[in-house]
Amino acid sequence: METLQSSGSTDIDEMSVCQSDPVSSISKSQIGLIAATATGGVATGLLAICGPFLAPAFRRICLPYVPATNTQVSNVVHVLRGRRCKSIVDLGSGDGRVVNSLAASRSLIGGSEFVGIELNPWLVLYSRIAALRTLGVKSEVQFKRQDLWKYSLNQHDTVVVFGVECMMEELQLKCEQELEKGSTVVACRFPFEAWKPKKVYGEGVDTVWLYER
């Protein structure tokens, strides 16, 4: 009798062990699934936030986001002073500080329209908020999410661009094809090598070149 009881106890223990293994296995699978889902969610979130900033790096000719310094913005205003601009566009407007500063200086440079062209949606949103905060509701200040290479310049008489060296030649061709005679182009950081500037102001990376077409 004692032997039978002992054997029965052993069978029960073995059954308990056998039953516990699947439960443990399922639990580990669930933990793995949760971990994988969480990791995927974090990766998707980071891609959604960082994607617009990283995407230009995969373009043939990119215009990276490098905020203009106060000196650079001041130099742009300086070379445009007294020119009585009508419609100004900043290509690759970034955080909007150039457009907003030009709009705030309209008594010095003229202008009935100030437009920023920027591909990054987060920077476009930031620019609009900054404009609302610093300038109030101004219908003449606009920020558009658009590829600068696909944006037509013929509706503007003044173009501002903080370019990179590899894009200047192609941008020069775009300006020649789309801008009306007598238009003004302001280049910052890098000049248009084939054009003779009307004005040059500043030093080093703060240099600004003004051209008349």
UniProtKB/TrEMBL annotation:
GO MF entry, a single one: protein-lysine N-methyltransferase activity
Record-annotated membrane-spanning stretches: 31-55
SUPFAM superfamilies: S-adenosyl-L-methionine-dependent methyltransferases
GO BP annotation list: methylation; regulation of mitochondrial ATP synthesis coupled proton transport
Keyword terms, alphabetized: Membrane, Methyltransferase, S-adenosyl-L-methionine, Transferase, Transmembrane, Transmembrane helix
A single cellular component GO annotation: mitochondrion
Keyword flag Transmembrane: yes
Family designation: Belongs to the ANT/ATPSC lysine N-methyltransferase family.
The protein's name: Uncharacterized protein
Upper taxonomic lineage: Eukaryota, Metazoa, Ecdysozoa, Arthropoda, Chelicerata
